[in-house]
Automatic annotation (TrEMBL):
Taxonomic lineage: Eukaryota, Viridiplantae, Chlorophyta, core chlorophytes, Chlorophyceae
Record protein name field: Large ribosomal subunit protein uL23c
Region listing for Disordered, in residue ranges: 127-163
Organism of derivation: Floydiella terrestris
Gene giving rise to this polypeptide: rpl23
GO cellular component: chloroplast; ribonucleoprotein complex; ribosome
Gene3D superfamilies assigned to the protein according to its UniProt record, in alphabetical order: 3.30.70.330
Its job: Binds to 23S rRNA.
GO molecular function, one term: structural constituent of ribosome
Length: 163
């Protein structure tokens, strides 16, 4: 058993700086991450599952030149996906929440986040406009309903029979 434990501990991977840049998968853009960025100055990224907190901290120091105060990580549960007859799982990742110093930021992510927010607001505005044109106003529908009940039904002509 001792040999097995030793062989497992020896298989730990050591990442070089060139590899670290490839391990950032993407920044996360959603309303929750925007609120965290604006209120708490926390950035959200998806990174490789194998990275540890010290490695993540050094990675962002080298990649973006920012001092990270705190690193919080989360590994979400794996989700099933099913296409045609083949069922599988989505890829695993680690979500990282980085707290930076007050005077520091990542301008690239800030610009992407602002453009994301503008797109979402435009999309919501167009959906609201489409919903308001599809449904008549409540006053118009109430007037139409009252007008249809006021008309006598005797004006309708009975169906004619063919001779």
């Amino acid at each position: 058993m001792n040999k097995r434990k030793n062989s497992i501990s020896q298989k730990k991977q050591v990442f070089t700086t060139d590899m670290l840049f490839d391990l950032i998968k993407s920044p996360v853009f959603n309303f929750k991450s925007y609120n965290m960025l604006s209120e708490k100055k926390q950035y959200t990224f998806d990174v490789d599952l194998r990275l540890t907190k010290p490695q993540i901290q050094s990675l962002f120091l080298q990649a973006f030149g920012v001092n990270v105060i705190e690193v919080n990580t989360l590994i979400p549960p794996r989700k099933k996906r099913k296409y045609t007859a083949i069922a599988g799982y989505k890829n695993r990742f680690k979500r990282v929440f980085l707290t930076l110093k007050e005077d520091q930021s990542i301008p690239y992510v800030d610009s992407l986040m602002s453009s994301f927010l503008e797109q979402m607001l435009q999309k919501m505005a167009s959906q609201n406009a489409a919903a308001s044109t599809d449904q008549p106003s409540s006053q118009e529908s109430a007037q139409n309903a009252a007008a249809s009940t006021d008309q006598p039904s005797s004006q309708e002509s009975p169906p004619t029979q063919p001779s």
